[in-house]
Design a protein that fits this description.
This protein is an all-alpha fold. The chain contains nine helices and no strands. It has one domain. Helices cover 76% and strands 0% of the residues. It is globular.
Length: 249
C-alpha cells in the first residue's frame, strides 16, 4: 500500500532524490534572492540607527543570521550523521557531506563580521571570549569533518568516521548558545528570545528575520546542489546515471 510514509521514504534512494533536488534548487535559490534583497533593504535603509552603537550596529543583519546558521547547520549535519550510523543509508552520508562546507562558510562569516563589529565596540578585533572561542572551535569541527572525510578513500567508511566526529562535536553547540549566560563574557546577551519580546525596534527585528530566512533558503539550495554532485560522483557506475547522461546528451 502506498502510504505517506512509503512515499517519503522512497526519497532515501539517491536515484529518486536526485531529480527532486533538481526541481527544488531553483525554488530555494529565488527565495534566497528575494528574502536577501528584502532583508538588506530593511536592515540598511529602513531600520533606524541604534541609540548607542549608531550606524555601526547594522553588521548584525549579517552577523546574527550567520551565527544562527553556523549552529543550525551543524545540528542538521549531526542529524544526518546519526541517520548514517544508525541506518547505514547512502543518502544520509551524502547529505552530511553536502552540509559541512556551507556550515563552515557561515561560521567563518560569523567570526569575520563579529570581528568587524567588535573592533569599534570593544576596541579590538579579537578576544578569547567564551562565545568567540567556542564559535572558533565550531569552525575547526567543520574543517575537521571535511578533512577526515577527504582523508579516507572509501566513501562509506569516510561517512561513518566523519559522522562519529560530527556527533561528538554536538556538545559544542549548547556551549556556544549558553556561553553568555554561563560565563562573564564581553559578548552581549541575546536580543531575541522565544520567551520575551525582542529588545530592539521592530524594523531591526524584521530585518534580522528576513536575512535569517534568506540564509536558510541559500543553505538549502547550495546543499541540494552539492548533494547532486556527490550523488553523481558516487553513483557514476549505476545504470540510472548512464540513462540520465543519455537523456541530457
Amino acid at each position: 500500500m502506498n502510504t505517506p510514509t512509503t512515499r517519503w521514504t522512497r526519497y532515501a534512494s539517491p536515484a529518486t532524490f536526485y531529480p527532486l533536488a533538481g526541481r527544488l534548487i531553483p525554488v530555494f535559490s529565488w527565495l534566497a534572492v528575494v528574502f536577501c534583497a528584502a532583508g538588506l533593504w530593511v536592515g540598511f535603509f529602513v531600520a533606524p540607527p541604534d541609540a548607542q552603537q549608531g550606524e555601526g550596529y547594522r553588521i548584525i543583519f549579517l552577523h546574527v543570521p550567520a551565527s544562527w546558521m553556523s549552529m543550525f547547520i551543524y545540528l542538521v549535519m549531526a542529524f544526518w550523521s546519526a541517520i548514517c550510523l544508525g541506518f547505514n543509508t547512502r543518502l544520509s552520508g551524502m547529505m552530511a557531506a553536502a552540509l559541512a562546507p556551507t556550515g563552515a562558510l557561515f561560521t567563518a562569516l560569523a567570526l569575520i563580521t563579529g570581528s568587524l563589529w567588535g573592533e569599534p565596540m570593544w576596541g579590538t578585533w579579537w578576544v578569547w571570549d567564551a562565545r568567540l572561542t567556542s564559535e572558533l572551535i565550531l569552525l575547526f569541527l567543520y574543517l575537521g569533518v571535511m578533512a577526515l572525510r577527504s582523508a579516507i578513500d572509501d566513501p562509506r567508511r569516510a561517512d561513518r568516521a566523519s559522522s562519529v566526529l560530527a556527533l561528538v562535536g554536538v556538545v559544542n553547540i549548547p556551549i556556544i548558545y549558553f556561553s553568555v549566560q554561563w560565563w562573564n563574557t564581553l559578548h552581549q546577551g541575546a536580543s531575541i528570545s522565544f520567551r520575551h519580546a525582542p529588545s530592539m525596534a521592530m524594523t531591526m527585528f524584521a530585518g534580522i528575520l528576513l536575512m535569517s530566512v534568506a540564509a536558510w533558503m541559500y543553505a538549502i539550495a547550495v546543499a541540494l546542489a552539492r548533494v547532486r554532485t556527490i550523488i553523481l560522483e558516487r553513483e557514476g557506475h549505476a545504470e540510472w546515471v548512464a540513462q540520465l547522461e543519455e537523456i541530457t546528451a
